[in-house]
Design brief:
This protein is α+β, with helices and mostly antiparallel strands and 156 residues long. Helix content is 37%, strand content 20%. The chain has six helices and six strands, in the order H-H-E-H-H-E-E-H-H-E-E-E. A four-stranded antiparallel sheet has the order 1-2-3-6. A two-stranded antiparallel ribbon has the order 4-5. The radius of gyration is 21 Å and the shape is elongated. The termini are far apart.
Length: 156
């Protein structure tokens, strides 16, 4: 009897999330709360993505390929990769890869380090201070799940 209850409980743990995912983004987020898995938007969200990100001139298949969704606290959030826009978790590190140091050694007083070196997902604005990379200014806002706030829009 106890073994049967355990099997039923285990089955519910597996089936409930699978059923929610199959039901679509809104049902998934209501049922599961927060899920950080980035998934391509289904065709049903195409219009919402076009409106949210102003993508009226982008071909629909490209919008579908470049827009992802995730759940935060029961609501659907969408992000469009666009031109070098990071939809994954933000990089909060204050340490740059060796290319950052090399850039600053060549340009010791540069007032910026390009994003191809710092990464487009860094929360910091980077510059060189006497040949050493330095993070400056207030960091970009990151939500409680670690994603850059400015790139994510709530599904309306």
């Amino acid at each position: 009897m106890r073994y049967n209850r355990l099997l039923i409980a285990l089955a519910l743990l597996v089936i409930t999330p699978c059923a929610a995912w199959a039901a679509g983004p809104r049902a998934t987020c209501r049922a599961l709360g927060s899920r950080d898995t980035l998934r391509p938007i289904p065709p049903a969200l195409l219009g919402a993505a076009v409106r949210a990100f102003g993508l009226q001139h982008m071909p629909p298949d490209q919008v579908l390929r470049s827009t992802v969704w995730r759940c935060r606290s029961g609501v659907v959030l969408m992000c469009n990769y666009g031109a070098n826009l990071p939809c994954g978790r933000a990089d909060t590190s204050r340490v740059l890869p060796p290319q950052g140091t090399a850039w600053c050694q060549q340009k010791p007083q540069a007032d910026f380090i390009p994003a191809y070196i710092t990464g487009h997902d860094s929360i910091w604005r980077w510059r060189c201070d006497g040949g050493v990379p330095a993070a400056e200014g207030p960091p970009a806002r990151v939500d409680a799940r670690g994603f850059l706030v400015r790139y994510w829009k709530q599904l309306q």
